[in-house]
Amino acid sequence: MNLEDDLRVTLHDRAAEAEPQPDLWHEVRTGVHRARRRRVVLAAGTTAVAIAAAVSVPMVLADRSGGSPPIPADSAPAASAPAIDWVWPSWPEPVFPLRPGWVPGGVGEPEVLVMGANTLLHYENDASIVEVETGPLAPSWETEGTEEHTADVGGREATVRTAPVAPGGPAGQEFVGVRWRSAAGAWVQVLSWGPRDEAEVLKFARFLGAGSVPAGPASIEVTAVPAGLTLQHRSKDNLCVAAPEVVAAEREPEGLCATVVDEDYAPEAEAEPVAVTVGDREASFYADSGRIDVNLGAGRTLNVMWDPETMPLSRTDALRFAEGVTIRP
Question: What is the pTM of this model?
Answer without folding.
Answer: 0.77
